[in-house]
C-alpha cells in the first residue's frame, strides 16, 4: 500500500491560481506533478466555496470532528488563510 501524498500549501494555491487563469485540470496536474485530477478539483471546490481553511488542514484531521490543528477551528484559521489567498489569487480575478 502506498503512502498518501501531502502537497504543500504553496502547490495548492498555485493550482488554484492556474485554474483561475484558465488552465485545464490536466495541464495543472502535469505542470505541478499532482498525482490525481480529483485532487485539483477538490482544492478548487474548497476555494470556490470559501473553505480556505481546508487547504492547510492535515490529512485525517478534520475540523468538523474537532481534530484540526491544535487549538484551531475553521473560524480561527480562515482569516489568516484568506490573507494569504487574497493578494495572490484574488488579484488575478
Automatic annotation (TrEMBL):
Name of protein: Transposase
Organism: Erysipelothrix tonsillarum
Ranges of Low complexity composition bias in the record: 66-83
Transmembrane segments: none
Family matches, as Pfam families: HTH_28 (PF13518)
InterPro entries given in the database record: Homeodomain-like_sf, InsJ-like_HTH
Domain of life the protein comes from: Bacteria
Residues annotated as domain Insertion element IS150 protein InsJ-like helix-turn-helix: 12-50
Region called Disordered, residue ranges: 58-93
